[in-house]
Design a protein that fits this description.
By secondary structure, this protein is α+β, with helices and mostly antiparallel strands. The chain is about 50% helix and about 15% strand. The strands form four sheets. A seven-stranded mixed sheet has the order 10-22-21-20-11-18-19, with helices on both faces. A six-stranded antiparallel sheet has the order 2-1-3-9-4-7, with no helix packed on it. The longest helix is centred in the middle third of the chain and has 36 residues.
């Protein structure tokens, strides 16, 4: 509990103790007996004291809100009902209403605090400082003051302040706060590191590759801070419902207090004001919409918090609600279903040596950060010194072109070879074929292979068990490679040799054919996936190795790149939605039943307290279950 919650608990305990003494005096010394009338005044004073101790802030909020034109809220309902009960002589019930109401508010505050904890833990990834090498010395500066290209020193136990590349040292990085994974990730010279991780043992030096504003930490913190702004349709409905519902029940209570008394009084001469006012006050206590207004947002917030514990960042409750209705799942291949850790597995030169072919390809591919390009460069470094390239340019959907030693080097797919006039015979081997042409003359190809992620097949199977009706893979790879991956993991459909705009067009076709009232999910990680992520009902990006553009466009981010977290996210969404429905049905059902009983004089104020505070507590406890969902 925080300081504010402890103060509220202390007030409730004091109020409850004073209330208990007042109730005991009432039972032990009846008001009707002459010697005990003084004690009755003491009892009444104790009950009023208990009431004010527990609820003075509720009374103040009601007055303040009325002054600002916000009349119909739970503070108003509790104030009118409790003061009304005391006016008609029901001091114990008036005090009890306020004490139990505040108990429910305390319970709500603690529950919200717990559901925020996982998300609050994520905020702790923000580094406080960076040790930067400047003029031969190490200076401690704010992370946002570090420029791209500067060298940062990270000691054991310190948090990585900015994204960069290791240039010295090796160590383990604790990524639990980012990905939910407890096992440290080993890094050494040449490896990329992301901000927010904790250096566990060795001394590291990194060269900063992104300014703080574009770092992983900054993007995650922005995502977390904005996650509560995008509300689910159910949340918006409950908010609108409460605005209409509360005035209606206040008017209904007023009518219940007046009309029956007037009708009975005019017909029989017995006005019965006390009876009907009491029923109306009971009606008001029951009608407080706390259980709905609190438990529904808390359920979604708990779902988001629970997901973050597993490294699943959800940008808003509306995406959690949409994911619950997902029936169609569309996937990118590289880095999503496959590891994206490529290696050159075959070299087939034409008219040049294997090493020349590899060095030409690497010279052009040096400008690209694509995993395939990096694998070619890594293989070429073993073969010799990579020649310097000039005027290098990446051609989206085709490949790369550059000038090397006065020669025009074209490296890419078959479409690029056709574009430069190089005659090739396309190979049908499983893997990514990278062709090379020198001054328009075909000079061979290298075959780069990628491994399928261990969890891909299991994740697809679990999605189908959860009700997925269609799974599709969209890729720019050739037919043979695409079909090999599809068969290995059990996809329903595969579309291959797609350019970025072709992926979006294919996605539109799949979208048009999806089941009515269901949603389509697209899962990807690359720069060319950003349009598809934005177009889908729910875009899910791989956050650990995924591109900034993909993470920016996505609605949900899997921070540890584990495809097994996709079905987990679906189960969290389904569980959250199920709990929201349970709370709505339970709260409305109990309240309607008790409202009817109160109107007919069958239910009293104590039953009304259960219908309000009791139902709220039960609904909040149920909502907190959203925070705990484990991997299947």
């Amino acid at each position: 509990m925080n300081k504010k919650q402890r103060k509220m608990l202390c007030r409730i305990i004091i109020a409850a103790a004073v209330f208990a003494v007042g109730v005991v005096l009432g039972f032990a010394f009846p008001e009707s007996e002459e010697p005990f009338k003084v004690l009755w005044f003491v009892r009444t004073a104790l009950l009023i004291g208990a009431y004010l101790t527990a609820g003075w802030d509720v009374l103040w909020k009601a007055v303040r809100n009325i002054a600002h034109g916000h009349v119909f809220d739970e503070n108003f309902l509790m104030t009118v009902a409790s003061i009304g009960a005391m006016i008609i002589g029901e001091y114990s019930e008036g005090a009890a209403v306020m004490i139990f109401y505040q108990t429910g508010e305390l319970f709500q505050s603690v529950a919200v605090g717990k559901s925020r904890q996982s998300i609050s833990d994520m905020m702790d990834i923000n580094p406080e400082f960076a040790n930067v090498e400047r003029n031969g010395e190490v200076a401690e500066v704010e992370p946002d003051e570090v420029a791209v290209g500067e060298i940062v020193v990270i000691k054991p136990g310190e948090r990585v302040p900015l994204d960069g590349e290791v240039i010295s040292g090796s160590s383990g990085l604790n990524t639990a706060a980012l990905t939910g994974e407890s096992a440290p990730r080993e890094v050494t010279v040449g490896d990329e590191v992301i901000s927010g991780c904790v250096n566990t043992d060795g001394l590291l030096k990194i060269r900063v590759t992104k300014p703080y504003s574009d770092s992983t930490v900054a993007k995650i913190l922005e995502l977390v801070e904005n996650s509560s702004e995008s509300k689910a349709k159910t949340e918006n409905f409950i908010t609108r419902f409460a605005r209409v519902y509360t005035p209606i029940v206040v008017i209904s209570a007023a009518m219940l207090a007046v009309l029956p008394s007037v009708i009975i009084g005019l017909s029989k001469g017995d006005w019965q004001w006390g009876t009907w006012v009491y029923r109306a006050l009971t009606f008001l206590v029951v009608s407080c919409p706390c259980a709905l207004v609190i438990s529904v947002p808390l359920s979604y917030f708990g779902g988001i918090g629970g997901a973050s514990r597993h490294g699943i960042m959800i940008k808003g409750a509306n995406y959690l609600e949409q994911l619950d209705k997902a029936k169609t799942f569309v996937f990118d291949k590289t880095g999503t279903l496959t590891k994206g850790s490529f290696a050159v597995t075959e070299k087939c030169p034409e008219g040049i040596s294997e090493s020349e072919l590899l060095l030409y390809c690497a010279a052009a591919e040096q400008i690209s950060n694509h995993p395939i390009a990096r694998s070619i460069v890594a293989a070429a470094r073993v073969a010799g010194d990579i020649p310097k390239a000039e005027n290098a340019a990446e051609i989206a959907g085709f490949g790369v072109e550059a000038q090397v030693g006065g020669k025009k080097i074209s490296v890419g797919n078959a479409r690029l070879m056709a574009r430069v006039g190089a005659n090739i015979t396309e190979t049908e081997k499983a893997g990514t074929v990278v062709y090379c042409a020198v001054d328009g003359e075909y000079r061979g190809y290298v075959l780069v292979s990628d491994e399928i992620k261990e969890n891909s097949r299991a994740a697809l199977s679990e999605l189908k068990a959860l009700g997925a009706e269609k799974t599709v893979m969209l890729t720019g790879d050739r037919k043979v490679t695409a079909q090999a991956v599809s068969s290995a993991i059990g996809l329903d459909e595969v579309r291959f040799q797609l350019l970025p705009d072709g992926k979006v067009a294919a996605l539109e076709e799949i979208y048009a054919a999806k089941p009515a009232k269901s949603t389509l999910v697209y899962v990807g990680d690359g720069m060319n996936d950003a349009p598809s992520l934005a177009r889908a009902d729910v875009g899910i990006a791989m956050g650990g190795l995924g591109s900034d553009a993909a993470i920016e466009a996505a609605d949900i981010v899997l921070m540890n790149d584990d495809i097994a977290n996709l079905p987990l996210a679906v189960r969290i969404a389904r569980k959250t939605r199920r709990i929201v429905t349970q709370n709505i049905v339970f709260a409305l059902g109990v309240k309607i039943a008790v409202l009817v009983l109160a109107a007919f004089g069958i239910g009293n104020m104590w039953l009304a307290v259960f219908a309000d505070v009791g139902v709220s507590v039960i609904a909040i406890l149920n909502a907190m279950r959203c925070m705990r969902t484990t991997k299947g």
